[in-house]
Amino acid sequence: MKSLRLLSIILLLISTSAFAQKEAAIWYFGYGAGLDFNSGNPVTLTDGQLFTNEGCASISDKKGNLLFYTDGSIVYDKNHHVMLNGTGLLGHRSSTQSAIIVPKPKDPNLYYIFTVDEPNSLNADNNPANDEDPPNSGLNFSVVDLRLNNGNGDIVSTQKNIHLITYNPNDAEDKKFKCSEKITAVQHSDGISFWVITHFKNTFYSFKISTTGLDQTPVQTVTSQNIPLGGYNTNAIGYLKASPNGKKIAMANMATKTSNDTNANGQIKRNTGNVFLYDFNATTGILNNELTIINNVDPYGVEFSPKTTKLYITINIYNNISGNSLGSSLIQFDLKKGDITGSQQTINSSTYIAGALQLAIDEKIYRSGYSNTNNNINKLSVINNPESDGINCNYIQNKIDLKAGISKLGLPPFITSLFLYTFEYEYNCFGQSTHFFVNSLENIDSFLWDFGDGTTSNDKNAYHIFSKAGDYKVTLTKTVNGENREPIEKIITIYENPTVMTTPYKLIQCDTQDNNSLDGLATFNLAAANESISLGNKDYEVFYYHNKNDAVNDIYNTLSINPIYRNIIPNENLCAKISQPNSSCYSFSNVILQANPNIRITAENFYRCDSGDGKSEFDLEEKKQLIKTELNLPFDVKLYFYNNESDASLSLNELKNTITTNSKTIYIRAENNDGCYGTGKFDLIVEPVPFLISQPENTICESTLNPEVTLYSGIQISEYNNYSYLWSTGETSPTITVTKEGIYSVTVKNKSGCATALDIHVKLSRLAVINEIEINDLNTLNEVIIDVNHPEDYKYMIHFQEGNFSNSQNSTVFENIPGGFHELIIENIDGCGRIVKSFAVLNAPKFFTPNDDGYNDYWNFNGINDPIYKNAAIYIYDRYGKLLKQLSPFETGWDGTYINQPMPASDYWFTIHLEDGREAKGHFSLKR
Fold this sequence. Notes:
Elements: H1 4-16, E1 26-29, E2 33-36, E3 43-45, E4 57-60, E5 66-70, E6 74-77, E7 82-87, E8 99-103, E9 110-116, E10 139-145, E11 154-155, E12 162-164, H2 172-177, E13 183-187, E14 194-200, E15 203-210, E16 213-214, E17 219-222, E18 240-242, E19 248-253, E20 273-280, E21 287-304, E22 310-318, E23 325-334, E24 345-350, E25 357-359, E26 365-367, E27 379-383, E28 395-401, H3 416-419, E29 424-426, E30 434-437, E31 444-450, E32 456-457, E33 462-464, E34 470-480, E35 483-484, E36 488-494, E37 505-510, E38 523-525, H4 530-533, E39 541-545, H5 548-553, E40 564-566, E41 572-579, E42 586-596, E43 599-602, E44 606-609, E45 616-619, H6 620-631, E46 638-642, H7 645-650, E47 658-661, E48 664-672, E49 675-687, E50 698-701, E51 709-712, E52 724-727, E53 735-738, E54 742-749, E55 755-765, E56 770-776, E57 783-788, E58 794-799, E59 813-814, E60 820-828, E61 834-841, E62 847-848, E63 873-877, E64 883-887, E65 897-898, E66 901-902, E67 906-913, E68 919-926
Parallel strand pairs: 37-42, 43-49, 44-49, 50-55, 62-68
Antiparallel strand pairs: 1-2, 2-3, 4-5, 5-6, 6-7, 8-9, 9-10, 10-11, 10-12, 13-14, 14-15, 15-16, 15-17, 18-19, 19-20, 20-21, 21-22, 22-23, 23-24, 25-26, 26-27, 27-28, 29-30, 30-33, 31-32, 31-34, 34-35, 34-36, 38-40, 39-41, 41-42, 45-47, 46-48, 48-49, 51-53, 52-54, 54-55, 56-57, 57-59, 58-60, ...
């Protein structure tokens, strides 16, 4: 159990060191600008390396010593050098709040840097040529370990730019933007953990950071207000802040436009933004009671007063015609009023751009920004008395001289509840004297502690022993400068010491890492003992040491043995320190490291068929049973599978259940009731399935003597004997012959039992059946239209009377066909034969010239001088309807005379009667 000696050491340390809470004491921002608040007043710093228009973040230790700072993409250490691995973070210096830094609870060495990118609309359109720093990266985090690089810190390479989901991954538009430019952090109600909060569209995402790390599954709050993606990234701009008491959240949205279209004057649409206020539950991470503070403005900065009685915002003002900035206003709202929106007061209006507002540890609010005529201002403005009403807040423009530093728009955000609205406590293990204290820089007149169990104290550093373990609501009421401050409440938990194994636990490892399997030395995964010595409680944290004194003296558990540990001597005895998270409670147990000679397990390979891309699904639980049966292993032996020999040796990253993978080697670790029993390996082998050559559609020609077709299984002839076959007809040969149309399937299986199926389509192809040949002749088109069953199954062409052929065509319509007796040829597209059909196209000459010159001396029809038209009759009339001549198509024609007398030049009419019933009429000219 926990040593009284340790308690004495810690109490001594407490009594000799002053408590301070100065994580927000040093600011770096803008172009080389900085401030130091350690003295109680801001002192200008000129050694900063930032060059950022907006986003920035800084962090110091509790004593106000700088640790590091960033613009969201580059991290600088306390010496103002680029931190190792400190470039390439996924924030953006033009993102409103590109970064915020959050300490890992109860660990003085680890810090989280959360970054939010600028969600640029140019990276979300369909034109990659106009992209700017693509893609939009959304919310990510990286971890800084201050123990690295000689205490200057380093970003842990395996924990850099870890993406957090704050959007719908199934929504293509969401994925283009991912997140807004807003982020804030607030202390959890337990006084130990933190919430990191961001917003996108209509949802807040609250991520919890506890002593065990970051929970990457956020608590989500869906609100009634939706910020449209159509207006990004203007809609994404604006600050998100949590109040010092952790009970309120304020959000500024510079715009809520539905598109980036300009107004009627060609300028950016303005006055669509708003500011919302929410209640925040620091226990659950949920926001509620949404209140619209102000609407139809262009807000940017927001900040709460130290006591959360006032809310301040900055809004930009523009000329709607020219689009030029007219400056900005600083506005105050009274959060104590029943009508908060009606309490609006303008504190200041100027020609300055609306910048950030940030509460400092001196309980004043500082404002950045620059003139609309000069964007290189080396001043900050200040609200000296932010709790006071209206202009009594004592706002002074350009109060702080930044010397060579330039103020742009951003200021570094902090967890204001850490230094203004909180108290600390330590020693929360049952039986200990729990210590309560305040880290604020305030001049506090008096203290009233209520420990939630009916007892109180007026001591500044109060100590209290609780009568039993459990949760207690502890309240602190401070009097500052004669004023009673709002009580600060925290739910604290008094824990029991962990219940652990009291007898030494033997951790047995197979000695496989060297050439001497009998030396008793091996590499152990100490974490494999955690569950056993913790008696199954997986919430406990376990740290290992060479002896108990080392464990006691390591207050922050930062000097423990690496869990992957090679024993120094056979049967080495280690001290295990089992801790209750979020508490000062711990117990001790002993672990003996025993390395046994290894039993080699030889297992057969495991075969499965390729399911695509060279991968297959393997049931590892099935394989475990097969191995135990094949090798007749003892009943108490359990098998575990791993990707590599090292993991198998250390029981890391076990493979379970069913996996889908390529062929690879699996490593076995076998354990019995005494620990490691043996090791081995086998191969997962993905057997290829038969590759079948796809078959085109097969055709049976109805017109052949014995219509049939041979179907092939898709296997090369030379490989026929390596496979078995099963057709849908029941046949088992590599090929089959069929006589009917339909869909035939074949399953081909190799000797490993891997099968592939193939469907083969067979159709019956017929000769054309002509229903009608429609001839529209004696006109300008001379059109022939074929009516045939299934016209898409054929090609069509005409063999003309003169011997020429038309082009083959898919259409059943022919145009501009000359007069004459022709043949229609219809050919089956599957090569199953053709049919030929004769037809005639009539063509009556438009004129003739009977002048005995040998040209056009006679008039007669073209195209019907075939025996099938031998009985056709042609009648010629003058304009008065007098019959002048009756012709046969086989005659030379009319010579232009009537009773051997030449007829005059004029128009004459004809009528033709064909034997097939057709009749046609028309006229022609006789020219002299």
